[in-house]
Each structure stands twice: as structure tokens, then as C-alpha cells.
Design brief:
The protein has helices spanning 5-23, 37-40, 68-81, 91-94, 115-121, 151-161, and strands at residues 44-51, 54-60, 97-104, 108-109, 128-133, 136-140, 174-178, 180-185. The protein is α+β, with helices and mostly antiparallel strands. It folds into 2 domains: 5-104, Hypothetical protein ph0010, domain 1 (Glycoprotein, Type 4 Pilin, 2-Layer Sandwich); 108-178, 2-Layer Sandwich (Dna Ligase, domain 1). The strands form 2 sheets. It has a 4-stranded antiparallel β-sheet, with helices on one face. It has a 4-stranded antiparallel β-sheet with strand order 4-7-5-6, covered by helices on one side. Helix 1 (5-23) packs across helix 3 (68-81). It starts with a helix and ends with a strand.
Length: 187
Amino acid sequence: MQLDDNDKQTLLQLARQSIEYSLNNSWQQVLASDYDSKLQVEAACFVTLTIKGNLRGCIGHLSAMQPLVLDVYENARSAAFNDPRFAPLTTSELEQVDIEISVLTPAQAMSFVDEADLLQQIRPGVDGLILEDMGRRGTFLPSVWEQLPDRQQFWQHLKLKANLPLNHWSDSVKVWRYESLAFAERS
């Protein structure tokens, strides 16, 4: 998906408005038809909130379910108030929050013969991964490479996120890769 600077700014403003409306108990309905046609295309995104570089919330969808503007609007609200790892965002925190939006490409199933083969195929700094096995699932956005630049480390932490042991491997492991277009508003 190609987004110009105006599109990105519109989405970032929409994400912030979503959070502000919720803090003020004045939730507004958003109509995709009010936005540029590029922003009406069905696309999956994640909205990540940080304060002084520390994660404060991250919620999104791995596959397209609705127009991008609606996905951004709803995921921003969810990242601020429904991420189970954090208490709901407060009014005093809003001024400090940095917002990043990651628009995802469709996930592609990866083929590999073993764990070493999989690790060789992973593209550091490019791939987001979805891991699924034993009824468990986890994902890391491509931006996680900034904290975990080593393939092995990235992969092991993804296993932990999926509630699997560090040394877990089985013939039933499934992995998908995707890329993202990430852009941020900094407070």
C-alpha cells in the first residue's frame, strides 16, 4: 500500500482523536467514506503506543477485516484502553504518548525443512512473523527487530510470546511472514 505524507498524517491524527474521544467519553463514529479512497481500502494494521520509548500498548489485526481508517481508529482505542498488559491510558499520559501505525502486507506462509532452514530464511529488519503451534500463537512486528536484531534472539522471544518454551520445535510449527509500512507521530 502506498501512502503519502498527508495520508500518514491523517491516520496519525485519527489515532490520536480516537484516544482523546475515549478519554472524554465522547466516542465518535467514523465513516470510511469521509476519507480518501486509499484509506478506504481494507487493510490490517497495528497501533503501538510508547511513552519515553517504553511500550504502553499495542493492538492490531493480522489480516484485513475493514477499511484502513476504521482499523486505525479502533486499534488506537484498543491499544490505549484494552491491552491486557497495561492499565488503561490516563489523561495525564496522553501528552507523553508517541503513536506508531504499522500497515501490514498480507501474511505469506513460509516453507522450511527444519528450524535452521527457517532461521536462514528470516529477513532481519524486514519480516514480521506469526508463529503458530500447539494451539498457541504469537506475532512480532518488523519494528521488533530494533530491540532484537539477532535472528535467533528474535525467534526465541517470539516463541516465549506464543507461550512456547525457548527450545520448542515440532513438525507442526507454522510460520507466516509479512512486512509493514510503519510511520509515527512523536510528541
